[in-house]
Amino acid sequence: MAVVRQPLHQVHRWVIVAAIAVALLVLAQRGIAETVRGPSLGIRAELDGDSLVVDWLQPAGLGWDAGIRPGDHLVEVDGRPAGPATIDSLETATTVRVIPQSGAPFTAVAANSFRTSLLGQAIFLTTAACFLTVGGVVFIIAVDALPATVFLAFAVAAASAVGASLATSHSAGWALATVYFGALAFGASAVVLFSVFPVNRLTSSTARSSLKAWLGVHLLVAAPYLWVVIRQPSLYDVLQKFFMVSIACDLLVASILIAISARRFSLQSPQARSAIGFMVLGTLAGAAPFCLLSMLPFVVGVGYLVPPELAIVSILLLPASLGAAILSRQFLGIQHFVRRGLIALIVWFGLLGVYSLVWTGLARWLDAGVGDLGNVFTSPVLSVAVVAGTFPLLQSRLRRALERRLFRDVYSYSETLQNLGNEIVHLKDVKQIADHALARLGKTLDLSWAAITLDVKQDAPARLYRWGDEPPELRWDTGEREASSPPGSQPARGQFPLVADGVRIGVLGVGPKRQDVELSGRDAALIATAVPLVATALQNVLLLQELHLRVAELQDRESALGALSLRLMQVQEEERARLALDLHDDPLQRAILLTRAMNSRAAGAVARRWRKDAEEIIVSLRAICAGLRPPVLDDFGLVEGLEWVVNDLRARSDLSASLTVTTNDRLPFGRLDVALEVALYRVAQEALNNCLKHSGADQVVVTLTREEDRVALSVVDNGCGFELVEGEGAEHLGVLGMRERLRPWYGVVTLATDRMGGTVVTAMIPRGVPIG
Predict the structure, then answer these.
(1) How far apart (Å, rounded) are the C-alpha atoms in residues 402 and 396?
(2) Looking at residues 744-764, what average pLDDT do you find?
C-alpha cells in the first residue's frame, strides 16, 4: 500500500495545533476541577489585636468584585464573630461582614454563578473549543501562513481566557492570571491580525517599528501583574485601568485598520472587499446579541433579558467570519453560505431582544396601571403563540431587507426569471435585448461585469455587447474564435453558450461578483435558466431582422421591376406611336398615291385587280396604324377611344359589343391624364381580345364609370367564364400586364365570374386621379 506523505510544513502545523490543543485541554480540566470546590472570596487576613484585618486579596476575585480591599476589617465570617478562631476558615468562607476603611459596612457573599452550572460549563467549554477548532483548521490548511499564524494566536488567546474563566468564580489565582494575559494577548493579536490581513501593511520598516512599540506597551501592562498580585494587591485598581484602556485601544485600532482597508484597498481587489465586508458582518453578528439582549436592557433599567454569560455565546461568529475571510482566497464560495447564516443570527437575536423588551415593558405597564392584567402577558402560552405567529414572517422580511442592503445579490429565483422574460419579449432590437438582459443579470447578481458576443455570420465579425466594468483584455472561450491572450488577461468567470433551436448564436460571459468572488450554484442555475430565454429572444429578433431585410430587398426588387415594367410599357407605347406615324406617313401615303395613279392610267382586268389589292393594302395599313395608336384616343380622349375599339371588334367579329358611359353628376365624362387614358384603353383592349379568343361569348359590354371617389372600367361577357388555376391564371388572362399598367395610379384589377357564367374584368382607379 502506498504511503501518502504530507509536506513538512503542514506536518509541523499539525504538531503545533496538537500541542496547543493538549495544553488547553489540561487548562479546561483544571478549571472543571476548581468548580468542584465551593466558591471562595480569595481573602487572607492577619490579627490586629482581637480583630481580623485583610492583608491580601485576590485581585479580580469574588471578594475583590464585592468591594473588599486590603486593610478592611472583618466583623463576621460565615455568621460567626471574626477573631482568631475564624482566621483558618477564611479560605472556605462564603459570607463575611466587612467594615471598609471608608464607607458603611457591608456583607460580601461568595455564591455559585452561571459559570459553575453544567450549562455554563458547557457553553464556556464549547466557546473555547470553537475558537481553537476554527483557529487550528485555518492555521493548518491556509496558504497564507502569516495571517493564519496570527489568527491561531488570536484564537488561542480567546480560548485560554474563556476556558480559564470557569475557575475565576473560585478566585483561583492561576485562572485570573490566565484570563488577564489571555485578554491582553487577544487585543494585541487582533491588532496584528488586521495589520497583515486582508492586506499586509508590515512591509515597511516604519509599520513594523510601530507595531513593535504597540506590543511593547502591552508588555508594560502585563509585566507588573504578578508583582501587583503577590506584593501589592491594592495597586490592582490602577493596573486594571491601564488594562481596560489597552483593550479598548486595541479594539479601536483594529476597527481603524478595517476601515482603512475598506476605503483604500477594497476598490482595487474584490477579494479584499469581500473579506472586509465579511469580517465586519461577523463582528456585528458576534457583538449584536450581547449588546441587544444583555447590555442595552441593563442600561435602560429592564435588567438582563439574557444572562451575559449566555448572550456572549454569539461571539463564536467572530472567529467563524474571520476564518472564512482568510480561507476565502482558497475556497471562494465559503463566504456565500456563512454570511447568510450570520445575517439570520443577527435578525433572530435582534427580534428576540425586541420581543423581550416589548413584552417585559408592556407587562410592567399593565401590571402597574391595570393590576393583575399584566400577569396575562407573562403567560408562557401567550408568549409562545405571539412569537410563533409573527416571528417567521418578520424574520423573513427583515433578513431579506438586510441581505439586500448589505449584499445586493439577494433575489427571488422565479420572480427574476419571470420579470426577465416579460421584459425582453417586448423588445424589438438585438442591442436592447442584450443590454437589458446583461443589466438585469448584472444588477441582480451584483456582478462586476457581463458581456454577450453574437456570431451573426461565419464570415462576419462577432457583435459584442457589454455591461459593467469589463476588463480591457477579456479572453473569451468561444471555440474557433478563441485567440491567445497575453499574460495577466482575465478570462470570464462563467461562460454560457447562447443556443436556440439547436444552433449556437453566441456566448454569455460574466465576471466576478462585487461582494463575492465566485458565482454560487444558485447564481449559475439562474444564469443557465435565463440563457435560453435570452438566446430565443435574440434569435427571434435576428430572424425578424433578416426577414425585414429580405422583404425590403424584395420590395426594392419589386419597385425596380415595376419601374422597369412601366418604362417598358411607356417605351412600347412610344414605339407603337412611332410605328403608326411611320406607317401612316410613308407606306400608307405611297399606297394611296399608287392607287390614284393606277385609277387614272391603267385599264383592264389586271389593272382593276391591282387597284383592289392596293386598296386592301391601304385599309390594312390604316387598321394597323389605328391598332398601334388610334388617333382618336389622342385627339378626343378615352370615351371615343373605347368606342373605336368596340366598333372595331364588332366589325372584325360576330360579337355584339357595346359601350356604356356613366357619371355621377350626369355631365360629360371629360378627359383624364393622357397616360391614364392610354393605360385604361390598353386594359379594355386586352380584356376584349381575351374575350374574343377564349370566352366563346356572343355578347360583351364595356362600361366606363366616373364617380366622386373613383373611375371604374368593366368588361363583361356572356361566355364560358374561366377557372383560375393558381400560378397560371394571371399569366393566361394578361392580368399581370393590366395591373402593372395601372400601378402608378394605385389601380386595382379584379377578375370574377358573372352569375350567368361569363367573365367580369374590373379596373378601378381611386379618388384623386387627375381628370381633365
Answers:
(1) 10
(2) 86
